[in-house]
Amino acid sequence: MTDTKTPEEIESIIESIRPCFQCGICASSCPVFRVAPEINPRHAIDEIVKTGVIEPDGTEWSCAYCLMCEQRCPMGVSLAHLLVAVKNISTEKGNAPEGLPEIIHSILSTGVIAQDSDLDKMREKYDLPPLKRPTAKEVRKVLELTGATDLLELYQSKGVGSD
Ligand code: SF4
Ligand code: SF4
Predict the structure, then answer these.
(1) Nearest ligand, CA of residue 60?
(2) Which residues line ligand 2 (CB under 6 A)?
(3) pLDDT at position 122 over 70
């Protein structure tokens, strides 16, 4: 079963962004907005507060979670947190970006997204010891607790991300 948001949780998210007074500092601080104006943090908040619903439109996946917007917001609105909630809702609806099911599969079976990473090569180059990797068992426990394995089942039932 997926961790679908209850109406109370949605209302709580909407309440948390109500202090927004549309100054636009978040948008002018957002590095993604500079190159992809379709992700307009200020506009996203305005829409949700005005309509009272959170309706993912796909632009939420462009957020890099850099936290610049919420560090600069004069009202302490956690826009990055809001966008994570929107991504979760989008995922629960079966609209995660292409490739996510494969990523979950890889993590479940090997404990990591990719076996060979540039980070490993970089560490080797600078004579740094390799990073300790979690075991697949440890990672699976986290994925089960966070509901990611349920999401994988959802995507498998839709015919994507299966073996
Ligand atoms: S910086 Fe804060 S108050 Fe200003 S528009 Fe963005 S979320 Fe609203
Ligand atoms: S956390 Fe997302 S919305 Fe906020 S500034 Fe960074 S990329 Fe933009």
Answers:
(1) 2
(2) 29-30, 32, 41, 63-69, 79-80, 83
(3) yes
Record the pTM.
Answer: 0.74
Q: Same structural domain for residues 22 and 71?
A: yes
- Residue 113's alpha-carbon distances to 61, 63, 75, 98, 162, in angstroms, are 18, 20, 37, 15, 16
> pLDDT per residue over 97-109, tens digit each?
888 778 878 888 8
Tens digits of residue pLDDT in 63-99: 999 999 989 999 999 888 888 888 888 888 888 888 8
In this structure, the answer to whether residues 88 and 104 fall within a common structural domain is no
Query: For residue 86, what are the contacts with CB-CB under 8 A and spacing of at least 6?
Result: 44, 54, 56, 60
Ligand 1 mean position, distance from CA 4 (Å): 27
The torsion defined by the Cα of 114, 140, 7 and 95, in degrees rounded to 10, comes to 30
Tell me the chain's radius of gyration from C-alpha atoms.
Answer: 18
What number does the ligand 1 atom closest to the CA of 19 have? 3
Do 22 and 78 have their domain in common?
yes
